[in-house]
Amino acid sequence: AWFQPYADMEAKATYISTYQAQVVYGLLQTEEYARALLATGMPDDLDGLLAARMERQRILERDHPPLAWAVLDEAVLHRPIGGREVMRNQLARLLEFSGHRWMRIQVLSFRAGEHTSLDGMFTLLRFEDDPDVIYTEDLISGHMTASPDTIKEAARRYAHLQAAALSVEDSAALIARVMKERYGDRPRPDERTVA
């Protein structure tokens, strides 16, 4: 229930910029990745949560979707959510966006070292006629604010993250390399799909 107000705002946004430190951004997740991720919370209605996550992604299929920019920490590529096959498919999904008109993905390489958002993920939503909103999460819930000072700080941090991250093209090359080297071209016979 605490997430619904954010999902409603996300659906109305004209521009989304997000930094994800641990997992792939929800709008970019494959169904299998999302299932494995959502199952970690041991929900009563996993299928319902998964359906809602997949429904959120429909905003990217609209005639005029929001312009979206995701900076993913390199750790996101290496953390094997759901096992090798799930991750291989998830990274392939990210690569599908490399030529996408409305979505840009950058990877913040481990080589960047310390950076302005080591304390975690955040998403900045911009709207046509409403104030900008910043969204963050903690262990228990999510938090949104339209405080101008917080928005200004988030925009500053995001600019620094984008500048420190690999280019969109170099990010795609890194994603492809990690996919091949870490998750292989085919499933292994003894592969487990759930951690």
List SSEs in N-to-C order: HEHHEHHEEEEHH
The residue ranges in which pLDDT falls below 50 over 5 or more consecutive positions are 189-195
DSSP E strands, number:
6
Coarse structural class:
alpha/beta
Determine the fraction of residues in helical runs and give it as a percent range: 40-55%
Estimate the strand proportion.
Answer: 15-25%
Backbone shape: globular
Strand order within the widest sheet? 3-2-1-4-5-6
Round the mean pLDDT to the nearest integer and report it. 91
Largest sheet: 6 strands, mixed
Radius of gyration: 16 Å
Q: Total helix count?
A: 7
Distance between the first and last residues' Cα: 27 Å
SSE layout and pairing:
Layout (H helix, E strand, L loop, with lengths): L3 H9 L2 E6 L10 H9 L6 H11 L10 E7 H5 L5 H13 L6 E6 L13 E5 L6 E5 L4 E4 L2 H17 L3 H16 L12
Parallel strand pairs: 1-2, 2-3
Antiparallel strand pairs: 1-4, 4-5, 5-6
Helix pairs in contact: 2-3, 5-7
Report on this structure.
This protein has 195 residues and is α/β, with parallel strands linked by helices. 41% of the residues lie in helices and 17% in strands. The protein contains seven helices and six strands, in the order αβααβααββββαα. The chain has a six-stranded mixed β-sheet, with helices on both faces. Strand 5 and strand 6 form a beta hairpin. Helix 2 packs across helix 3 and helix 5 packs antiparallel against helix 7. The C terminus is likely disordered.
Keywords summarizing the entry:
195 residues, 6 strands, alpha/beta, 6-stranded mixed sheet, 41% helix, globular, single chain
